[in-house]
Design brief:
The protein has helices spanning 12-21, 23-36, 62-75, 88-96; strands at residues 3-10, 40-46, 53-58, 78-85. It is an alpha+beta fold and 106 residues long. It has a four-stranded antiparallel beta sheet. It starts with a strand and ends in a 10-residue tail after the last helix.
């Protein structure tokens, strides 16, 4: 199952919701969204600094991740970044593939 790193920053409105609901309430909401699309939350951490929230999630396909991303961003409560994560075996496979490429100016 494809794995994604999600980094999020709360907007002022989102932060107000977090303060009212608490971290455990947000965890339950995230679990509901992810499992509702056939995924799994591997890890969820709150942070401070550039990101307020960091998650590692599994989804059955990239389209499910895109659907969640669009819905969350449309809410206006969070700014998010989703990064696909690859296993060591996937990178080894990618390294073995031949790619026809010519660098600019070469």
């Amino acid at each position: 199952m494809p794995k994604f790193l999600i980094q999020a920053t709360y907007t002022p409105e989102g932060t107000k919701g977090l303060l009212a609901e608490g971290a455990s309430g947000r965890r339950a909401a995230v679990e509901q969204v992810v499992t509702g699309l056939g995924g799994k939350v591997e890890a969820m951490y709150f942070a401070f600094g550039e990101d307020d929230l960091v998650l590692v999630v599994d989804f059955p396909d990239p389209v499910s991740m895109a659907a969640v991303s669009l819905t969350v961003k449309a809410s206006g409560a969070l700014h998010t970044r989703a990064t696909p994560l690859l296993t060591l075996d996937e990178i080894d496979e990618a390294a073995r593939r031949q790619v026809a490429f010519r660098a600019p100016g070469a």
